[in-house]
Amino acid sequence: MVRKEENDIELLHVLSCVKGVSGSINFYNSMISMRKTLALILVSLFMLSCANEGTFRAENIIPTPKEMTVNDPKMYRLSEVVVLDTKEHLFFSSNRDEYYVKTDKGHVIIEGNEIWAKQTIAQLADADGRIPDVEIHDWAVYPFRGFMHDTGRNFQTIDMLKETIDLMSLYKINYFHWHLTDYPAWRIECKAYPQLNDAQYQRPGRDCGKFYTYDEIRALIAYAKERGVTIMPEIDMPGHSAYFKNTFGFTMDSHEGMKVLEKCIEEFCNEIPASMCPYLHIGSDEVYIADPKGFMEFTENLCRKYGRIAMAWDPGLPSDSTTVRQIWNTAAGSNAASAKKGGRYIDSFMGYLNYYDPIYFTNKVFLHKACAQDVPDTTNALGGILCLWNDVRVADKTRIALHNGMINGMQTFAERFWQGGKGSLEGLVAFESKMSYHKDNVLKGYDVRWVPNIQMSWKITIGTSDTLTARGGAIDVDDLCRTYGLSINDTTSAWAFTTISSQEATIIEAWVGFEAAARSNRISGGIGPQGKWENQGRLFVNGIEIFPSQQWNEPGQYAFHFNTWAKPEEEFPYTDEQFYWMRQPVKINLKKGTNEVKLYIPKTFKGQRWSFAFMKL
Questions:
Q1: Which CATH code fits 144-357+374-392?
Q2: Smallest Cα–Cα separation from 276: which of 297, 248, 307, 298?
Q3: Alpha carbon distance, N-terminus to C-terminus of the chain
Q4: HSE-up of 32 (CA within 13 Å, CB side)?
Q5: CA distances, 112 to each of 22, 68, 104, 177 (Å)
Q6: How far apart are CA 76 and CA 107, in angstroms?
Q7: Omega before residue 238 within 30° of 0, cis
Q8: Partner of 65 for a Cys bridge, out of 138, 259, 564, 612, CB 3.0 to 4.6 A?
Q9: Taking the domains of the chain in order of start, what are their residue ranges?
Q10: Is the pLDDT score of 452 beyond 80?
Q11: CATH topology of domain 2-138
């Protein structure tokens, strides 16, 4: 069977989401109507010439295709798309991600996964929608490549979630793990117990009374499906549920609580059938109850009753062999041990976007060994989920992606779990070139706070230790010490040294930071004193001390040397000046030749996330 699509409307929609032909797409702003966008794209396409003498860098596709040949680098106007219902160019009988694309002077032939093929074409296209002549055969190593967002703690609108799903689809991330309930609120419409949606029982200041109707949930599921994304809802049970006890006066794991849950899950599963959401995440972590085995049997049996595959956190309450475990413990060696426990599992043990410095974490994910496997084996290892939690109250939801490095984190995650294995430093250097291209061309209109940085090298001394070496513009000193097997005191200090070469005397701009406050527990030294860096850090270039370029709006604020979970301090939202990647860059005078850069990095209290950053923009 052959399906021919003249000026393929679905592909044009993909191009509109990615390229923003009608204008820039501002992340989490109101989207342009599809009809208007398509009309503008069609007009622009008909105005294009057939070919362009320039060439296009087809190697910049993310994730990297397994097999690709560029037959003609010239750019041709897209004229038709033909989708073949054949498997002539496909290898695998059960790999739903596999696709084949051949383009010839604007004519496109597709076999296999049509959505992923069109996303690849969208990345091939230039700003005017033209594509080169290529032949691509590609497939994913792991079938489950997910992104998790916590809307239980901080509610996001459906339009915000749609933009997140657009980005996921662009990078072939195929599961949206929708964390719908947490301490502040139950974010699902509840007809059986409408009091679950009542603001009076929810945490004050946390989007009280806001929830998703079943119509909205179904609409988002349909929207995601069109883009190759399956939604996996999480109803966290029995932990992270203060709202539940506030509402009913008893806990989820009590006899009365389980009766309420049974009706709630029945309602949800009747409203959202298994065909829409085959997985149901039941949470189960960070809670201590009298009968953990009995409660898990209860929730797992509910999943089976309604035809769902259960997923649960590990570490968490004990699950049975049919439940997929989502491993989240990042302790050294624990991940590989957990992966060998038996049964199917998902890798979230690379850590969370909201915990690390987001630029350091971007590198960390690329260098992560997916599913703790040198050679991918999907018998039990299904893939991974990249998680973004926001424990701290968020005042401006449009800053979530920026404060956590969501887009750059997605890019390296997509690459790692599409390819499997572990990335190398040399591979990351090459991949940064792709990311730079996407930042400047594919993601026009998005504010991406990331720059290439892995080629920076450092010599670091800590106390009387031997000189350590590190790579990257952002360094997590705690992680570095663990790598070298160093035991460090609660308070200590380090010096970091690097050089910058310049062909002439010039002025550069750089991001500089001496801490990256976690967006989870909020442990932080806070904003520095006026005119100084945070955490008592100091920067010297060629022996001259460099100070911040901007005046702090809140100097000396937000110094919390303790976990703020469920404490009043957790309700103070982060602001841009608390993150070095959101601040004004500092201007630095360089001389011709070699310039010496030196940073003083103190660790000032127990539990501090010890890190620093210096990145040339």
A1: 3.20.20.80
A2: 307
A3: 51
A4: 19
A5: 30, 16, 18, 25
A6: 9
A7: yes
A8: 138
A9: 2-138, 144-357+374-392, 457-616
A10: yes
A11: Chitobiase; domain 2 (3.30.379)
Nearest partner of 283 among 262, 267, 270, 300, judged by Cα: 300
Q: Residues 333-353: what's their mean pLDDT?
A: 87
83 contacts 99 by C-beta, under 8 angstroms: no
Q: Where is pLDDT greater, at 38 or 599?
A: 599
Number of H helices, E strands in the chain: 14, 27
Domain 457-616 in CATH 2.60.120? The answer is: yes
CA quadruple 352, 354, 360, 366: dihedral sign: positive
CA distances from 163 to 179, 195, 233 (A): 17, 30, 18
Helical spans, DSSP H, in 139-238: 158-170, 214-226
DSSP string, 288-329: --S-HHHHHHHHHHHHHHTT-EEEEEESSSPP-TTSEEEE--
What is the sign, positive or negative, of the torsion defined by CA atoms of 562, 566, 569, 570? positive
Q: What is the pairing mode between strands 345-347 and 80-84?
A: unpaired
Helix (H, G, I), strand (E, B) or coil at 438: helix
Place of tokens 């820039």: 24
